[in-house]
Write a structure and sequence with these properties.
mainly alpha; MetI-like fold; 2 domains; 14 helices; 78% helix; 0% strand; globular
């Protein structure tokens, strides 16, 4: 791509890069403050905060439960996001614009509203009937955690899937149909491979969003230690009893997980641009 004509240094570049530097400095200042606090705490107490975090059976259980529930919710998001994203991208039917807008509702709603709505739903006759089914209890259970994570993160996966399929040239699918492929074969052999980078980035984004869910879990699943405690609720529980260092250690762990997820998203996006997909 040719460079933009004109001098490299001008008022637009100075202003925009300065704003970027200011924002980066603010973010790094927050992380640095956390690290300095942990360093001072270790010097006062003589024990590594990481050792405190990993040595606590409650926190280890929360890490395990976060990994399991977010993994299951990610599978559910993929199962729903791929067909819904494809349908919204390829088909136009009465009400499709409304359905497209409804998909984004969980994104703009405060997450705690989703938790309240789920709790109220399970107080309706239909919700009570579901709760009476053996092994389908959601209120104050691990399944409730997965349900909250799914509802909060699914819209991100669906939106990413739609954008990925929007980037696939429909003429290639039409060409596959003229060559004898069925619609399912065209989806499997043309659309999905060409949308793979966008789908993968959306999956990582949805997983990261699921891991960080807090508000809905407090309402629907509760914060019972060794039962419905995940990493975000661990931070709340540790702070509630004045254990700032372990809470901050878990927070730094989640920051590291977020950085890994964001790096993966950007790496997938860069690879897609490099490959031209």
């Amino acid at each position: 791509m040719p460079s933009v004509a004109g001098p490299r240094v001008h008022w637009v570049s100075v202003v925009t890069i300065s704003v970027l530097a200011l924002f980066m400095a603010a973010v790094l200042a927050l992380v640095a403050a956390d690290l300095l606090y942990l360093g001072e705490a270790e010097m006062r107490g003589g024990e590594s905060v990481l050792a405190q975090v990993l040595g606590s059976p409650e926190i280890r259980h929360a890490m395990y439960l976060s990994a399991v529930t977010s993994g299951i919710s990610l599978v559910l998001v993929i199962v729903f996001a791929v067909p819904i994203g494809y349908a919204l991208s390829r088909y136009r039917f009465p009400g499709s614009i409304v359905l497209d807008a409804i998909v984004d509702v969980p994104i703009v709603l405060p997450p705690i509203v989703i938790g309240v709505s789920l709790l109220i739903f399970f107080r309706t006759p239909v919700g009570r009937a579901i709760e009476r089914v053996p092994s389908l209890e959601f209120v104050y259970t691990t399944k409730g955690i997965i349900l909250c994570q799914f509802f909060v993160s699914a819209s991100y996966g669906i939106r990413a899937a739609k954008s990925a399929f929007d980037g696939v040239d429909r003429r290639l699918e039409h060409l596959a149909l003229t060559l004898g492929c069925t619609h399912g074969q065209a989806l499997r052999t043309v659309a999905l491979p060409m949308a793979r980078n966008g789908l993968a980035a959306g999956a990582v984004m949805a997983w990261a969003r699921a891991v960080g869910v807090f508000g809905p879990l407090m309402i629907l699943a509760g914060t019972v230690r060794m039962k419905t405690e995940v990493l975000p609720t661990t931070i709340y529980l540790e702070l509630s009893i004045g254990r700032i260092e372990p809470a901050l250690g878990v927070a730094m762990l989640m920051i590291a997980m977020a950085m890994v997820a964001l790096t993966a998203i950007h790496a997938i996006g860069s690879r897609g641009r490099w490959w031209g997909t």
